[in-house]
Design brief:
Blueprint lengths: L3 H17 L5 E2 L1 H11 L1 H21 L5 E11 L3 E2 L5 E2 L2 E16 L3 H67 L5 H35 L10 E2 L18 H8 L4 H21 L5 E16 L9 H8 L1 E9 L7 H67 L5 H35 L7
Parallel strand pairs: 1-6
Antiparallel strand pairs: 2-5, 3-4, 5-7, 7-8
Helix pairs in contact: 1-4, 2-4, 3-4, 4-5, 4-7, 4-10, 6-9, 7-9, 9-10
Length: 449
């Protein structure tokens, strides 16, 4: 950039002095995003929600497996008791029993396959929700990162102002010694130098605060003084970014197919439709396969003519094996199935509205991002022209002051306008870069510098 050529030497000097005072590792934007993705608490919570969805899907898949149960029983009867043949006799008895049984669904009105499909869609929606949270976090980090870069550039401009004012202090001393300007001008320029140093202190504090905010967003247990970021070599945002400022309709056409918030709502809609079929399964009969095995031992007492069969022989005689089918035909369920179906249809309509609302919200966000980008582009262009004009005005004021043809107030006014134009250009520059990155983000490109 032409504007940067004027203060590039001073900028390099200031950054070298500033970097020499820092001992912290300098983080790139990509490193910040990667670290936050791995350590952010909100993302960890969403990851747990995803794992819970995986468990739900696994539970649904296991519904096809047979249920298996076993039991033991021990009864004591006194006086009158049932025999193994089912006859009530006047004897005391003890009965030991054991059983194992299994039941497996054969047909349940397609409840299980639709439940599995719904749980799988919920899992995919949870994955998209996690990705949406990652995208939002990346945008937030990029915003804080660029704010820190902006504050660093403001610090550089403040350092430049001190350098320029310091040079004029030396020139004013020479003019005073030569008798060309009164001593009061030397006091005034020294006062301006003190003000510039205050401005530099404020700018340095703003850098520290911006780094602290970014470090807190990254969940780093360190202060801003122990954390620093890399200052990349950013090209002029006006060069090579025209392809990013597309019409909102074109950006939306690309974004609606890739943005996770839309995929999440569409997957949830398909899940609601599957749950409607699950509810409708209550209208169908259910067929189960049943298997069982049972055995028992009977011991009688209280009469002299009792002969108890040995335990091993009874186990051979009393075992029972069963295999069968059971069919459950629903007739009247107090309208529970009907109301479940109605609730499922309401859930579908609600999710359709949520999906449409997500699409409209995305389009509004893209429209706003497009407007912000075009406005930032215009502001950056205007600020660049302002820098060129104020730079020329400052050069002229500097020449007049050096020859004693203007006062220190005129010089300071011109220098202040020049510094203000540089600050406005820096703000417009980083804002334009951020707005371009947002448009790229909606087009499915990762946020990088």
């Amino acid at each position: 950039m032409k504007i940067r050529n004027l203060y590039l030497p001073a900028l390099c000097l200031c950054w070298s002095l500033y970097a020499g005072a820092q001992t912290a590792r300098q983080w790139t934007l990509e490193e910040c995003i990667r670290h936050a993705t791995e350590n952010n608490i909100d993302l960890k919570q969403r990851l747990l929600e995803q794992e819970a969805s995986e468990i739900d899907m696994n539970t649904a898949k296991n519904s096809w497996l047979p249920s298996l149960s076993a039991g033991l029983g021990q009864n004591f009867d006194f006086g009158r008791s049932p025999s193994k043949d089912g006859v009530i006799v006047d004897r005391n008895s003890a009965n030991s029993s054991a059983y194992i049984q299994a039941s497996m669904p054969i047909f349940d009105g397609f409840r299980i396959p639709n439940t599995i499909a719904a749980r799988r869609l919920n899992l995919q929606a949870a994955v998209e929700s996690l990705q949406k949270a990652k995208d939002d976090l990346a945008v937030g980090i990029a915003s804080y990162y660029l704010q820190a870069l902006y504050n660093k550039e403001i610090l550089t401009i403040a350092e430049l102002q001190i350098t320029l004012t310091g040079e004029q202090v030396a020139k004013t001393e020479a003019l005073v010694n030569a008798g060309k300007v009164p001593l009061s001008q030397l006091y005034d320029i020294r006062a301006q130098l003190a003000n510039d140093e205050v401005t530099r202190t404020e700018a340095r504090n703003n850098v520290t605060l911006a780094l602290l905010n970014l470090a807190q967003l990254l969940e780093l247990e360190r202060s801003g003084a122990e954390f620093d970021i890399d200052v990349p070599s950013l090209p002029d945002p006006a060069d090579g970014n025209a392809g990013s400022i597309l019409h909102p309709d074109m950006i939306y056409h690309n974004a609606v197919g890739v943005k996770p918030q839309i995929k999440e709502q569409e997957l949830l809609l398909e899940s609601r439709k599957k749950m409607l079929k699950v509810a409708e399964a209550g209208y169908y009969p259910q067929l189960n396969l049943n298997l069982s095995y049972s055995n028992g031992y009977y011991y009688y007492s209280g009469a002299d003519d009792i002969v108890n069969i040995r335990f091993s022989d009874q186990l051979k005689q009393n075992e029972r094996k069963t295999i069968g089918l059971s069919l459950n035909i629903p007739i009247f369920s107090r309208f529970e199935v009907r109301n479940s179906v109605r609730s499922a249809r309401v859930a579908i309509l609600s999710q359709e509205l949520a999906t449409e609302n997500a699409r409209k919200a995305l389009y509004k966000e893209i429209q706003q991002a497009y407007f912000n980008a075009t406005s930032a582009q215009e502001k950056y262009t205007a600020s660049t022209q302002s820098v060129e004009a104020s730079r020329e005005a400052f050069k002229y004021a500097e020449e007049r002051y050096a020859t004693g043809r203007s006062t220190v107030f005129e010089y300071n006014e011109s220098k202040t306008k020049y510094a203000q134009s540089l600050s406005e250009q820096a703000q417009a520059r980083f804002d334009f870069i951020f707005r371009i990155k947002i448009l790229d983000f909606y087009n499915g490109r990762p946020i990088t510098l």
